[in-house]
## 1
Amino acid sequence: MKVAKFGGSSLADAHQCQKVIDIIKADPKRRVIVVSAPGKRTPGGHKVTDMLYLTHQLASIDMGGNEVFSSIAERYLNIRNGLGLAYPIEDDLDTVKQAIFDGAEADYCASRGEYLCARLLAAALDFEFVDAAEIVRFTEAGDLDLALSQKLAAKRLQEGCYVVPGFYGADEAGKIVTFSRGGSDITGSILAAALQAPVYENWTDVSGFLAADPRIVKDPCPIEVITYEELHELSYMGAQVLHEDAVYPARRAGVPIHIKNTNAPQEEGTRIVPSKDEHRHVVTGISGKNGFMLVHVSKRHAAGDSGFLRRLVSVFEANGCAVEHMPSSIDTVSVIVREDPFRSRQKKILEEISIFCEPDAIQVQEDIALLAVVGEGMAKRAGVAARLFTALGTAGISVRMILQGASELNIILGVRKENFKPAVQALYREFFKEEA
Ligand code: ASP
């Protein structure tokens, strides 16, 4: 069996829903289906979830909300009619509307986007509808109870065919609780893990991950296979397709995730796997982000002062500023932080470093971009760093900082902001074009 989750753009209207139905019917193993709420129909359009939050907000301050709710109802009626279904969605819509205007909480209101969508899809497929409130359990504090959710899901979802709404669950008292935005990915992952599915298919509107950001590199090649670990590195540095919390349940259960494109189901997509034996390219992907700063703190014989690093890090911690990386040389430690929140606390942090660390000099470098070159194929292979620096050198880019993790899974580079795009392009050329 397979667990398949479909995102909002895959369910935006009847035409998109029909594609989803065709995909599900094409493989009888797709027995457990998780859905998002209908997403944007056009780039300037609206997601049903946003409209539900808005209705709730307007209703809660007595500012109406009827019109927005009517547009929501219209979306579902159009899908129902477009698919030629007899399902009486009007009754569900009336119940939801009543609840919202009777003061239901925001989480309940937002969750109805998925609930209604799952009702329609279950009717279209003739699958059983199972409410996520029955199987996805949150603690009183609002955190996911993964173990209990998996237990409930494994018990409830047996041999049959099911449609389950994503994005929400309930606490023990039955109160609806949602994940953060985009959370239907997490629901799919929980169910796939609970059922020990051989694969968790995540259907979206792109054919998986690309080896570089297409806004920077023209037509970057798709990543066909990536390990969870590589994905973690790439996502941390900016590449986003899945909700960041969606990987954990599947990864823990060893279930591979397959990202597929509803609009191009024939394309390979990306498989996220626990480990891989073959590495088609030395580098799997390149990602990066702007908006970092380097704080160089120099002190003669700092390396011999055992409390120096602790005092330095404490200053950042006390000011609520996370330290991203901290490369050091004998007498200088470079602390890499995000511009925001560092900038707003800069004066205080620098003063405190002066007091507690008594440095000889502090120098702040702004406008730093970090690039991550990620790939298990780099491990224990000689010459990768040489290629990397030659490519950047040839492009006239000077590297401000370099870090390589002990796992040799990634190399992180700091460059000036204006060199960010040219650096990504040069590295892509080196590791993908030349190797193709
Ligand atoms: N509908 C929710 C959102 O728009 C959750 C999801 O789509 O995964 O964030």
## 2
Amino acid sequence: MSYVDEVLELVKKKNASEPEFIQAVTEVLNSLRPVVEANEEFYKKNAILERITEPDRQFMFRVPWVDDKGQVQVNRGFRVQFNNAIGPYKGGLRLHPSVNLGIIKFLGFEQIFKNSLTSLPIGGGKGGSDFDPKGKSDREIMAFCQSFMTELSKYIGADVDVPAGDIGTGAREIGFMFGQYKRIRGTFEGVLTGKGLTYGGSLARTEATGYGLLYLTQELMKCHGESMEGKTVVVSGAGNVAIYATQKAQQMGAKVVTCSDSTGWIYDSEGIDVALLKEVKEVKRARLTEYAAARPSAEYHEGRGVWQIKCDIALPCATQNELLLEDAKQLVANGCKCVCEGANMPTTIDATEYLQQNGVWFVGGKAANAGGVATSALEMSQNSERLSWSFEEVDAKLQNIMVNIYHNIDDAAKRYGMEGNYVAGANIAGFEKVVNAMLAQGVC
Ligand code: NDP
Ligand code: 2IT
């Protein structure tokens, strides 16, 4: 049995109840085969694959808080510190009822490779809770965030582990958590990113993941002799990533005709009205039915369905495993040329393979959505030097990082004879840097 297969078997056995983690590891290790097989004895002797698939440590803790009726509620909190070979652990906090250890581990594992691709010094980590922010008052959100941070504060720090936002965690939650960290530790430091602009946040961090996704997509199109101008784009999600991806795609001259949330989706023949979407989702925190009610050109549909709309480009920006094999078939049948992932692991492995086999240019989330965490690392730099850069300066750095990521993953795929396989290119390029650092630092 090859070394890759041996480790895959081991990971499946040791983490049998964590399907998302197994999925993420399977995708990465399969695509690393040419690299590992070129030097199998060496990788095996150093147990590189066993070490990179086992987190440095993982914390699970009780999060008690009091709701508006005076009832005590208990949630489960997580932080997985996966790998700090190239910098402090870095990765978001997801607040969603579906959160469990396996989901946080898959996200933390992917973050190692993504963060390496940014070219900035950040290791991989992730955290969150099964707390559901939907329908909670601001006071309940604060009570939860303070309790969550009371425990989390023991394990993080500006040079140790720097959490940020993810699903369900935005500026409001980061603010409450930052305040609690400051109270407990007594230090004003860059311990979280995605902070408000008046207390150490970076301009362009809010927009960064969506904008970065489009900077990379635009470079990919350009390198294939195409542009964004006049293209029809289908986006899923209606949160932070989806909103700013839609805005930047429109600024580039494309027409985005869909968005979705966990209950339904919108088809808007005139193109999504970003100002209205922001009002519905960021201000009112309401359902997409409110978007449809205010917009005559929009149709609202219950359930899922954005991938059935004819498009040139598809950008999944909601959550994991939201683009299935049947969706991939529909996209190909409708002539879609390009799929770039704004979310983490939104496309299943069989759907990814179908898209690649049918000539769709496919870039996975580890490369395509790296603009968010890259800009978080720029926020860390600004905090360290106690300065704030202008929007234009941060945005220019973000563009540069995303264009470089595209060329880096394209080159890595070509080096191993897999031209056009950007999934393999991203995993290989991300892996090489981390492994170099791990080897240099000895057995740890
Ligand atoms: P938000 O919470 O802002 O938005 C998430 C969106 O996805 C919402 O529209 C939500 O619907 C929808 N959604 C969430 N879970 C489900 C589900 N189980 N089924 C259907 N729809 C769902 O999160 P973000 O925009 O920040 O994150 C979106 C994705 O991007 C995630 O995969 C995240 O890990 C990834 N990502 C985020 C980065 C960031 O900087 N924020 C950086 C890189 C990746 P509803 O409104 O109903 O909840
Ligand atoms: O998945 C991700 O890269 C994020 N949620 C952003 C992490 C960060 O530290 O900015």
